[in-house]
Amino acid sequence: MNKISEEMIALGSTRSVIRELFEFGKVRAAQVGAENVFDFSIGNPSVPPPAIVTETALDLLQNSDPVALHGYTSAQGDASVRAAIAGDLTARFGMAYSADELYLTVGAAAALCCAFKALTCPGDEFVVLAPYFPEYKVFIESVGAKMTVVPAQPADFQIDFDALDRVIGPNTKGVVVNSPNNPSGVVYSPETCKKLADLLRAKSAQFGHTVWLISDEPYREIVYGNTQVSWLPSLYRDTLVCYSYSKSLSLPGERLGYVLVPSASPDAERLYAAVAGAGRALGYVCAPSLFQRIAAKCVGCTADLTVYAKNRALLLEAFAAYGYPCVAPEGAFYLFPRTLEEDDLAFCERAKEFDLLLVPGSGFGCPGHMRISYCVPTERILRSLPAFEKLAKRYH
Ligand code: PLP
Q1: What is the Å distance from ligand 1's center to 332 Cα?
Q2: Is 216 touching ligand 1 by the criterion CB < 6 Å?
Q3: Weakest-pLDDT range from 31-35, 174-178, 187-191, 366-370
Q4: What residues are paired with 172 via a beta bridge?
Q5: Of all atoms in ligand 1, which is nearest to the CA of residue 112?
Q6: How confident is the model over 328-361, as pLDDT tens digits?
Q7: DSSP letter string over 130-175?
Q8: Is 257 in the pocket of ligand 1 (CB under 6 A)?
Q9: pLDDT at 16
Q10: How many Å separate Cα 85 from the centre of its chain?
């Protein structure tokens, strides 16, 4: 047998829990009918992109030079596209941005990988806050850094600052935050964000080097009521924003996002070069050309998010009635209730007996919980409620 990277074999052959559930769902659908399987496992947007996406795509395909349209763009993304996005950020967040601060990427996943690779030097660590997106571990470790976890604060899923204070050490290169959060749906309050910025400033001063803030924001626009998502670069200078159009425009398969590199940082020029270098080393070449141009025309737009609001309200009401303790979060399209037994893996196995496909919280660094992705047709929610009720009755 030839030698092949064992690390990559392990990564490529372990099916994620979500994938397992997906396969299970397919088998059950064949047995009991797809309408009787309640799959809440995958965070794939269930609403179509806004009409402007299709209109712009058609217009570009029919009326622009196909050679340029399908050609490579510059590695950091087309300059006019970056200018359009920078203009939108300037208008929305009251800070002046230019095209030169943006590096377009193949979704938030690539934005994060570029950010981690750009920053990482031997011995570096990144802190993540539970519950966290499980791919962080893969991204961070694949650039040779170490991931350190701050345990969750399940009462409200804001930040446990005592724990964060203890975990940030001299090797901490950055702290990763994700608000609105996958899997909890929670949006960090303005107080949490301000406290975080103050702590990072204090830690940077204590250790004599910047502790960067990596803000992973694919759900920025998916919020309910009057919720405001704090703009972290206005609170903490050394913030890299990693953004994605996957969720806001319902375009996860088209792979577009960006890194916003903080130009006010004394290291800005070198950092931007390092992000570009990381994109090059990782072989991204450039973000998809057609969807760069589409995004430029869609600044400020989102898919119709009303179905998520409706689904969220239905589930929260039902969970309160059936006795699933659940923080009522203000964003994303996930709920993260407590499981009705401590062992979340056992609980989610039992849920399968009712054809409910729920993701155990352990994979997000937060046992005793389950993630419910409610980016599904409302009809599925309504049909699933008796199953949730029966499952709860097993415990109460
Ligand atoms: N970060 C979080 C928290 C996510 O939930 C996801 C996708 O679900 C990503 C990053 C990756 O998003 P993208 O599709 O833009 O790569």
Answers
A1: 11
A2: yes
A3: 31-35
A4: 125
A5: 10
A6: 999 999 999 999 999 999 999 999 999 999 999 9
A7: SS--THHHHHHHHTT-EEEEEPP-TTT-S--HHHHHHH--TTEEEE
A8: yes
A9: 77
A10: 19
Q: Going by CA atoms, what residue is nearest to atom 12 of ligand 1? A: 108
Q: What is the CA(110)–ligand 1 centre distance, in A?
A: 9
Average pLDDT (382-388) is 98
pLDDT, tens digit (0-9, with 9 covering 90-100), for 88-125: 999 999 999 999 999 999 999 999 999 999 999 999 99
For residues 392 and 388, give the distance between their C-alpha atoms in angstroms, rounded to a whole number: 6
Q: Please report, for residues 87, 154, 328, 365, the alpha-carbon distance to residue 150 in angstroms, rounded to integers and kept in the order given.
A: 35, 12, 22, 9
Residue 339 near ligand 1, beta carbon < 6 Å:
no
| pLDDT of 15 over the 80 cut | no
DSSP-assigned letters across all residues of 315-373: HHHHHHHHT------SBTTEE-PBPSSS-HHHHHHHHHTTTEE-EEGGGGT-TTBEEEE
Q: What's the distance, CA 336 to chain centroid? A: 15
Substitution candidate for ligand 1 out of 181, 244, 282, 333 with most atoms within 8 A of CB: 244
Which of 128, 246, 249 has most ligand 1 atoms within 8 Å of its beta carbon, as the pocket-test mutant? Answer: 246
Q: What integer best gives the mean pLDDT of the chain?
A: 96
Instruction: Tell whether ligand 1 has an atom less than 6 A from the beta carbon of residue 132.
Output: no
Please tell me if the CB atom of residue 178 comes closer than 6 angstroms to any atom of ligand 1. Answer: yes
Q: Whose CA is nearest to atom 8 of ligand 1?
A: 43
Q: Could you give the 3-state DSSP secondary structure of residue 380?
A: helix
